[in-house]
Amino acid sequence: MIGMNFGAFLTLLILGLIATIVMHFVIRYRMMDSTDGFFAKWIAAWIGGWLGGPVLGHWWFRIQNVYIIPALVGAFVGAFALVVLLKAPVVSANKVLAAKVTSSASPEVMRKVS
Questions:
Q1: Tell me, what DSSP letter sits at residue 2?
Q2: pLDDT tens digits, 45-54
Q3: Residues 76, 41, 22, 59: is their CA dihedral positive or negative?
Q4: What is the pTM of this model?
């Protein structure tokens, strides 16, 4: 797969686009709402699709020497992994910040806020 032809590149690009559209618009699993997040997931899906064939094996049918099902599964995994890796630090930082705010606030401050 290292020395792929243009047809294989386009096949992986289309499979990555399908996985990205499903993840971004159908499931709405996003890291950013803008087109930047869409294109970042598309790149990660292409890389996942490129790695999908060698990692998951060679089964079902192929187009331009790209096995479709392993590449599609790899594209979904690549897009999902990117979102998880970029969302995890933000979610954990928000939990730590929320814990600090609730533990450091005195009851008087809590009453004034509410």
A1: T
A2: 999 999 998 8
A3: negative
A4: 0.75
